[in-house]
Amino acid sequence: MRNLIITLTLLCFNYAVNAQEYYWTTYSFNVEAEDVTTVVSLTDDYFSQPGSKAEGVTVYLFENHFRDSDNDWSHQFAFTGSLDAMGEQYSRGENDSWELFLTKLSQFTKSHSAAAGNSLITIGEAGTHPIQNILWLDVEDAGKFAAAWKKYHSKFNPDDRRITLGQFRLGRSAMHETHYVLQGFNDFKSAFNAGKYRSGNKAAEKAWDEFIDAISEDVTILRTNTRIMVGKW
User: Fold this and answer.
1) How many CB atoms lie within 10 A of CB 198?
2) What is the DSSP string of 127-155?
3) CATH class of the domain at 23-232
4) Maximum pairwise Cα distance, the chain
5) Residue 170: enclosing H or E segment and its boundaries?
């Protein structure tokens, strides 16, 4: 996918706790404010065409909104789908229309980084969830963490929030991230205080404390960022 774009993070996944595993790739890039509309238009023109992507693949364009100074890309493409669908997407061979799209984009974008990975556990119903908070994690005991994470979130996750635990596979940064938690929200009010739903809920507060105690020695939060969905195809 050339000198376009790129770093991580992703994504939209399947339906509930036992949903089919989804794979993703991300291409992060920088674009000047005055060129964002052009990039969105070019992307919409291309991916609105029949056959522009493999069946079962969804394409997203995100803006990197809240982030630290080292995580300095402005926008990101994310491709998501099943393993078979993603395999088909990356095995499509020569495509003049795709090459033209990349050539046009390269006039307005500067490549940053690229990554790939997959979801492990997704909780909550599929929806738009245009505001997405992402926690980048270094996990020592992946199995222990996943079990504790699923135990808590499968019981207490709010109905209007979609949350995914996943792993980084390719394109890891110098921070050596291994896993991520992606929280999807319908609005910034919910995203600003993701733990507010526990306030006054003694069962949730107790379970959260037990969850934190269980993982505290195995998990380090390396970075957080918030991205906003600009388009979906």
Assistant:
1) 17
2) ----EEEEEEEEES-HHHHHHHHHHHHHH
3) alpha beta
4) 59
5) strand 162-170
Cβ-count burial of 221 within 10 angstroms (0-12 exposed, 13-18 middle, 19+ buried)?
exposed
Beta bridge mates, 66 = 226
Q: Identify the CA nearest to 177 among candidates 139, 208, 148, 150.
A: 139
pLDDT at residue 48 in the model: 97
Of 207, 218, 222, 226, whose CA–CA distance to 150 is shortest? 207
Amino acid at 150: K
What are the extents of the domains in the chain? 23-232
Tokens representing 140?
Answer: 């020592």
225: its two tokens: 């960022």
pTM: 0.89
Which positions ≥6 away from 199 have C-beta within 8 Å? 205
Rg (CA), the chain: 18
Per-residue model confidence as pLDDT tens for the chain (233 residues): 444 433 333 333 333 334 467 999 999 999 999 999 999 999 999 999 999 999 999 999 999 999 999 999 999 999 999 999 999 999 988 899 999 999 999 999 999 999 999 999 999 987 789 999 999 999 999 999 999 999 999 999 999 999 999 999 999 999 999 999 999 999 999 999 999 999 999 999 999 999 999 999 999 999 999 999 999 99
Looking at residue 186, the DSSP 8-state letter turns out to be S
CA distance 213 to 14: 29
Q: Give the rounded distance of the alpha carbon of 201 from its chain centre.
A: 29
